[in-house]
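Protein Entry — a single chain follows
Fields — amino acid sequence, structure tokens
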Amino acid sequence: MEYFKEYKKRLTRYVGRKKAMHIIHEAVYIVSVGTNDFIENYYSPTSSRRKQFTVEEYEDFLIGLAARFLSKLHRQGARKISFTGFSPFGCLPSERATNFLGHGGCVEQYNKVAIDFNMKLQALIERLCASFPGLKLRFAPTYDLFLHVVQNPSSYGFENAIRGCCGTGRMEMGYFCNEWSRFTCEDPNKFVFWDSVHPSESLNRIFANQTLRTSLAEFL
């Protein structure tokens, strides 16, 4: 939010206040929140969040943070906002790799959290749209498509949906994955996941095309 405020100041200095506000109003904002808050925070072995919150309370805590952020964004002039829902993060390679009792399958407990959070997020979006005239806040679903790709990778041109392209594909992520590493696969387009957490460029393109046809369609 602070970066956005700074951008507004610079934009206003560059084009003037009237044109700057027109740009701010007409711009499309894409917001995503939550997945890392569960993977890297709530469900982390070293996290203290589970001592503070039940999973339902933590969902509500994140929804409250999202509500405050979106309200601030609206006050700054944003009117066209797409909010990306949770994917089935229990199917990420990093989570499947540690699901020993589930024989390496998706962690259904985590997927249920994603479904519950998405329902609460959609309810929040309805409330905010009713509270702020002129606000076009749309939910961008990813759960169903993501799950269908993971369960039917060949239907989308993929050969592997269990591990990422990088390294073992089960634990590595971020800076450990790059095109210069000899442990990176030769053709990332055959993989649903780039590393143990992030989708490959090919899967992101599928998500982008769906979003352009659905939640972003009325903005374009």
Summary: The mean pLDDT is 93.
